[in-house]
Amino acid sequence: MTDYDVLRVFCGPNGGYGNELGVVRDGSVVPDAGERQELAAKLGFSETVFVDDPERGVIDIYTPGTRLPFAGYPCVGVAWLLDVPELVTPAGVVGARQDGEFSWIEARAEWAPPRTLRRYATAAEVEELAVPPAGEWVYAWAWEDESAGRVRARGFPGRGDGIEEDEATGAAALLLTDRLGRALNIVQGTGSQILTAPQPEGWVEVGGRVRLER
């Protein structure tokens, strides 16, 4: 079996929650794209990352069913693991930095995969939602405290690949931040925390806590 690490990305303040991420630190052991897709499907994480150059931060990202040019929470997690100033993805070069307990990336909204951002009137409505049928990728959200930028959200991939709900999704948070044009403090899933901040010239920072699960 190929060696891999498991990270938990976008943990809550107590270190719990967060979304599990598989990371193959030595991507050369699985060089073929088809084999990478097969392994990502076998591992079953929302995303699995293959590191092709740890010093330059060159990475390759897969869901259980497809390859992604960019994804938010994998970049936040791998930036923490590799401790590099940038990551090189097919979509572009992602800035990275560490700030105390938070790992941050800087990316562009147009790199993110399509998401339907669906606003609800209250956080309670979001919490009570049932998983929708497979189809569009839905990011359900509502203000918990609009003046403070606090958001309650849930992510439903709708891909039909066994991942009915994502505990935490950086790309969707990036898109919401770009749309609203303001910094956000997002609680997603059962208790994951995502911080965001718009930057000049269309860039958005996305940050959160990361810990090594195993």
Question: What can you see in these coordinates?
Answer:
The protein has two domains: 5-93, Roll (Diaminopimelate Epimerase, Chain A, domain 1), CATH 3.10.310; 111-209, Diaminopimelate Epimerase, Chain A, domain 1. The protein is built from four helices and 14 strands. The protein has helices at 33-43, 72-82, 123-127, 170-180; strands spanning 5-11, 19-24, 48-53, 58-62, 67-68, 86-89, 92-99, 102-108, 116-119, 138-145, 150-156, 184-188, 192-198, 203-212. Strands 1, 2, 3, 4, 5, 6, 7, 8, 9, 10, 11, 12, 13 and 14 form a 14-stranded mixed sheet that branches. The radius of gyration is 16 Å and the shape is globular. The protein starts with a strand and ends with a strand.
Which short descriptors sum up this protein?
214 residues; 2 domains; 4 helices; Diaminopimelate Epimerase, Chain A, domain 1; PhzF family phenazine biosynthesis protein; single chain; globular; Phenazine_PhzF-like; 14-stranded mixed sheet; alpha+beta
Brief summary:
By secondary structure, this protein is of the alpha+beta class.
